[in-house]
Every structure is written in C-alpha cells, then in structure tokens.
Amino acid sequence: MTNVRLALATEAASADRANEDFVGAIPNGVVVLDGAGYPPDLQTGCHHSVAWYTRTLGTSLLGALGTEDGSLTDALAQSIKAVASLHSSTCDLAHPGSPSATVVALRRTNTALEWLVLSDSVLVLDVDAAAEPIVITDERLDDVAADLRTHLTYHPSPSKAHGKERHRFQEALLQHRNKEDGYWVASTDPLAAEHALTGTVPIHSVRAAALLSDGASRLVDLCQLATRRQLMDILAADDPDELINQVRKAERTDPDGSRWPRSKAHDDATAAYWRF
After folding, report:
1. Is CB count within 10 Å lower at the N or C end of the chain?
2. What structural domains does the chain harbor?
3. Which stretches within 112-227 are classed as H helix?
4. Is 269 exposed, middle or buried (0-12, 13-18, 19+ CB in 10 A)?
5. How far is CA 109 from each of CA 114, 188, 219, rounded to the nearest angstrom?
6. What angle do CA 231, 141, 226 make, to 5 degrees?
C-alpha cells in the first residue's frame, strides 16, 4: 500500500449553483456520483435537492464499502434503500423525477480491484495486459437520450429556445428511467443496483484507475481534444484539477455549443485518480 496515491477534484458548473457531483474515498475504496440536475420548473416530487441526494448516497455507499462484506451491487442496493428511508415520509418516492445519480465505485481487496458502474459516468483502468486504457461506461442512458435529443442541439445555448427544448427533453427522458427497455440510475429503488455493470481485475495488474463524471470526461468524449491515454497522462502528471481546467478552457472557447453541441454549456466536473 505504500505506493498507492489517490487524488480527487470536483468543481461546480458555475459559482451560483450547488455542485451536484460527489466524490469521496476511504482507505480501500473510492466513489464518484453525478447527480441528475433538472430545470428548476420540472416537478420532482421531492423536497430535497439533487446535491443532497448525491452527498447522502455517496456517504452511505462509502460506509458500505468500508465493511468489505458482500458485493458492490449489495453495497449500492443497501445504500439506495437507506437513503430512500430518510425521506420516504416527506417525499413522493414514486415520482419519476425523484433525485437520482450515476455511480462509479472501486474497492480494493488483497487480491483484486472490484468495480461498479451505473449509468453514464466513466471508469478508466490502466492495466498491464492492455496497450490502451480500458474504458467502462454504461451506454444505456446515451442510447435512450440519442433518440430524444432530436432538436436540443439545434438551439444555441444559452437561449430561450434551448431552455424550452431542454425541459422537453428532460421530461421525456424521465419516462424511460429505471425501466427494462430504458436506462438505470441510482434513485429510490434498490433494484437499480442489480442493473449496474460490475467486474474485478487482479490488483497486481492495475497501474492506475480514473473515475470521471461526464462533465470531466468531456475533454475526450465530447471535445475529442485528448485520447484516453492522454487523459491518464494528464491525471498522472498534473492531478485531476488540471483535467478539469482543460475541460473548462475548451468549454469557454465554445460558449453557445456551436462546435460541440451539448445540453449545458458547463457541467459539474469530478475526477478521481488512483495509482497503484
């Protein structure tokens, strides 16, 4: 364990709103959550903010990882259930707009690195056996969104037309959330944990791992200004703060989304880098 190095960074999309991402670590694990933010006038059925949900779920999940009992799927299911119990008496948990979040989790054991990915945040593993980093992300949300985002990218951001279309897009997306033919995220139903992608890698074969919210992975996925290898090099040399700085620099060169069409000009950005 003496050579293990962990670095974390997170930044809100703007200074005037709460950061809906969460990142946290314990000696044997790390998690990144990306809360699903909605337009202010979209009904959610919940009195709590998305930021509250991601912080509460992330903290609970870290505690579950620390026990080292059961699988990561079990840990996430228990955490979703625990958070739901905290506001079931005050909020309508059956509402499709209840706060939700993507999840990426890693747990180290004596022999393996266990991983879990739910929804569209990104896990990147740099392992000895692969020439290029291994990328793990759950594409079901992107698949659903692609069919619903027909008009969203044709309206400049920010603009009134873009805001109206984003509201329509978010409402349509909610109708597919946590359904067999849709996509799965952490929200109020522990069953969602069973739909997460999971796996293990021998710990001796892992050089490094990166956990990224989609706001931090924009440099590669959206802007295509870096490869996965270059992203890992940035994290190794300059820490996650520099990755986020480069994302923000790219976003500022395209404020209206004409070069890189996107639903939000800026997004919360979070990255964790774990070197072994």
Report:
1. N
2. 5-274 (3.60.40.10)
3. 140-148, 160-174, 218-221
4. buried
5. 8, 29, 31
6. 15
Q: How far apart are CA 199 and CA 9, in angstroms?
A: 25
Q: 199: which strand partners?
A: 115
Query: β-pairing, 269-275 with 5-11?
Result: antiparallel
Cα 87 from chain centroid (whole Å): 22
Question: Helix, strand, or coil here: 51?
Answer: helix
Mean pLDDT over residues 78-98, rounded? 94
pLDDT, mean over the chain: 90
Average pLDDT over residues 93-99: 89
DSSP 138: -
Residue 88: which residues within 8 A CB-CB, separation 6 or more? none
- Find all residues with CB under 8 Å of 77, minimum gap 6, and list them: 190, 191, 193, 194
**Distance between CA 39 and CA 100 in Å, rounded?**
14
Reported as a pLDDT band with limits 50, 70 and 90, residue 264 is: confident
90, 106, 135: which is closest to 29 by C-alpha?
Answer: 106
Contact between 275 and 236 (Cβ < 8 Å): yes
How large is the C-alpha radius of gyration of the chain? 18
Higher pLDDT, 3 or 259: 259
